[in-house]
Structure formats: C-alpha cells, structure tokens
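Dear colleague,

Thank you for sharing your sequence with our group. We've completed the structure prediction you requested, and as agreed, I am returning the results in plain text so they can be pasted directly into your records. Please verify that the sequence below matches your submission; if there's any discrepancy, let me know and we will rerun it promptly.
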Amino acid sequence: MISTLQFNKSSALAYLLDGNGGARTVDTNEIAAWTPQDGNLWVHLNYNNSEEIKWLTDSSALEPLVVEALLAEETRPRTTVIGDGLLIALRGVNLNPGADPEDMVSIRLWVDSTRIVTTRKRDLISVTDLINQFNTKKGPCNSAEFLVELVDRLIWRMSETVDQFEDRVAELEEMVLAVDSSSLRYELATLRRQAISIRRYLAPEREALSRLIIEKVSWLDDGSRLQLREVNDRLIRHIEDIDAVRERAAVTQEELQSRLSEQMNSRMYVLSVVAAIFLPLGFLTGLLGVNVGGIPGTDYPMAFLVFTGMLVVVVVLQVLLFRWKKWM
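Please find the predicted structure tokens below.
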C-alpha cells in the first residue's frame, strides 16, 4: 500500500486487532507494511474526505467494485459476497446530538478473513462502542466477531428509539381528550412520519442480515451465524414494534379526527337550531318593520308589548316542536 493517508490530519482511524479483545492504533506506514500474519486490520474512513477517498481508490488494494460501493453516496442495506469477502451496507439510528432518529446513519463494510474496511459520512455511536471495547480489552478478536459485534451494536442502539416511539404513542393515546387538537394532530403526524422513515430502512436491513446468515464464507463460523440470527430476530421484533406504533398512531389519528368531526357536527347543530328559532322571528320583525302604511298597531300604545309577547309564544312553540321531534 502507498503511504498517502495521514491519519493525524484526517478523520480516518486504523486499528490492528491483537486477537485477545484489544487493538492498537496504527499509522499509514504500518498499514503499508501490514501483512495478514500481523493480525486483523481495521481501517475506518470518511467517504466524503478527498484524502481518504484517494487512499481507498489508489492504495487499499481493494477491487474497483468494492471501492465504488464503499464510496457510494446513497445505498440501501444489502449484503454481497465477492470472493471470500463480504460487501455490506447497513444503517443505524442517528443518535448524534440534535439529530432526528429517522435520519439514519449509513456504514459500508468490506470484511474478509484478515481485513476490515469501513466507511461512513457521519459519526456512528456503534463504532465508538467498538473502540471503547478495544480500550478495555473486551473487543472482537477477529473479522467474524467484529462483524457480529458491530451488527449487534447497530440493532441494540435502535432499542431505545423504538421504546421512545412506543411510550410516545401511548401518551398521545391518553392525550386525545385533553390536549388541543391542532398540536396533537401535528405530533401524531410527526410520529407516523418518523416510524415510516425508520421502517423504510429496517426492512431491507432485515433482508441484508438474513442474506448475511446464509452466505458461505470460510471465516464466518456457525457460532457467529447463530449470533447473527439472534440479532436478526431482534431486528424483526423492532420492525414489528414500529409497525404497531404506526398502526396505533393511525388509529389514534382517526379517533382524533372522529372526535373533531363530532365537535364540528355538534356546533353546526347548535347553530342550525338557533337559526331555525330566529328564522320566523326575523320574518315577523321584517314584515312589521316595513315602512308602508297599514301596519297594524301603529296607533295602539301596547302594540310593542303585545308583539313581543307573540314572539315569545312563537319561540316557546318552536322549542316544544323541536323537543317533540327530538331535534334537541
């Protein structure tokens, strides 16, 4: 490998696994001199950094197809076997400060029996977890364990977000009768959007893990496959929980819409009753208020009181009629 990448001047990281749960950082010169006999090598790059792109393209000794996949701007979760290695694209929940959980962070991996190359654009807490494990001598010892541990961390980090979704939809279900409808509708719509966005990536990620379990590569043993199957089962449970959140949010939104419709109908009913009561009153007052000769009672001092009493009688008769018709 050509020494073109200065790790102290970029976001790249490189570790040499010691096979006992630990790892030490290595520089470009050590990477250039690395051989499989030295142990498993892990290089972690930012695919938006021009210096790191150049190193991956010119000096990594990876096949062009693999390099292209590791540098792709957009990719869906997938698993592809190339020779005795695995080309994998996965996504994790965005837990960076100020980020939206549904804005998932992608990581691309090339893994073979002795070398691991990963690329990302944004920081992924699951990768930080792995580095912390190396610092405490409790990290993976080889490529198979690295792959299992990283996938397990990605899925495990989703648990808190899924739990938050479930707690939030439960709160919204209880708040339907107590909170202002406009804000509640916005929160329900936001929750549904987040659940839909996350599920859109988790469905292909489930397929990627299922493919990973059945692919035949020499360095992935049966124990690792069993662990990956457990991780995949946990991912399936997360997907089912997200589906349940989405459906509960939809039902809650329908219930809220139904209650809003009932309130609107009730208000329109009251307005209709009031309009029906004042319709004959308006007709009578309009009829007697015309400025023409012959209006009865113009010369009778008690005419206004008599007319007012007639209006009251009309209102009472209308109310009795509405009650008899069960309109109110």
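Summary note from our side: The chain has two domains: 7-259, 289-324.

Kind regards,
the structure core
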